[in-house]
Amino acid sequence: MNLKIEHIFKARSIAIFGASDEFGKVGTLIMNNLVSCDYQGKVYPINPKHAGKKFFDYQVYADLEDVPDKVDFAVIVVPKQFVNETIKKCIEHNIQSAIVVPAGYAEVDEDGKKMQSELVKMAENGNFIFMGPNSMGVWSSEVSMNINMGYMSPEPGDVTIISQSGSMGVLVCSNLMRRKIGIRAFVSSGNEACLTFEDYLHYFINDEKTKIIGTFLETFRKNKEFFEICKMNLKSNSPKPIIILKAGSTNAGRRAAISHTGSISGSDKIFEGFIKQYGIIRAYNYDQLINLISGFKCISSLPIGNRVAIIPGAGGAGVLLADACEKLGLNVAKPSEELLEKVNKYMPSYWSHNNPFDPAGSQDFRVYTNTLKLIYKSGEYDCVITNAVELESILGLYNPKNETALNAKEKMLEFARPATQELASNEIKLIKKYEIPTIFVSDVYPYSNIFDIFNENKILVVRDPDNAAFVLSEMFKFNKIIKAQN
Asked: Can you say how many angstroms the Cα of residue 230 is from the centroid of all Cα atoms in its chain?
């Protein structure tokens, strides 16, 4: 591990080359983000055209020579033609690390590759490390440092995001923020001319405050190191989930990766074979990445087995869920006669008497909490997928044509709001009491106020039934691999 990486994530003083206060410029956005998160250290904006002024209440300096204190970390936002000169100054002033934001290097053409090689050579000769080039930024909750081109201000947490695409990484962080999931760190690694994905992964595998690592990758630069890091993680006392969304698995995707970050994607078959051995969790699309990270964060314990109970909102949804679960290796186990007898007391007489436990259109919402409680107490199931009852958005689409029906709609809304809130609250209490992995499904998530209570209590809701099955299946597999190591 490159120990100087700590200078980035624990930086106590930052120089920003190309800082600005003119909105519409990257230097302004980075200054604004750094200030908005209440950064704990010292900030030195550098811009010779505005020396003596103040940007966001920070004194602006003409050059590095004028800065009164030692600088830990440099942010380079100057035009590309001035980057080499800026890095040279950093090395001369004993700054050991930087982030290079400008693009236009190896991802563009041969001239760009040459310029990138010159950067690397200069850094190696100067015992200097840098992120990027073509990086959108970095966030570190350790010192409340938000150097970012995206509009986000995460709450501190224990999830670290490493992304070779800056925009994808910002989207992931933003989505997790909506779910009230805090971020330990975010890295937009860019072209990885100096520091690579493997360097960051190694650092955060050893970071005690990181519990989950989510990544967007187009390529591996150091295959052997990646393998060794994953082996080390799996053999540790508490292996961390490493969740990877790997792009560039097709010819078209590989071409796009080259023009995006200058990377060459490796064989997808080799990658698939490797992850099965070392407990890497693969997401195949963006939604799966978000839901897997959220699942490992929100679900307090891993499934100890593959028996799943399904409580759908409708019969057809139950069939789809049963298909999805079985295809992914989950066992849609039949309930015992004893459990059926207990559930019968709360279900309509005409319900299916099987798993899925379909409430068959019952308008008594207590059927969900009563069935859930009986399933938990039975000990017959290792995990549960259930329907998140939400009525406001459905009633919003209901468009009555006369006053009588409009009045009826208002009365239905008056009933639905407190009833669904009470149901959600009671379900959450049961989940916290029994701690059996449970995922809710709703095709209108997150577009309803009802979901606020789920997010605030770290209860996972997904839009797609297939994703619910996928998350539980991957969590069960991860638990199985961990146990096999012990």
From this structure: 19
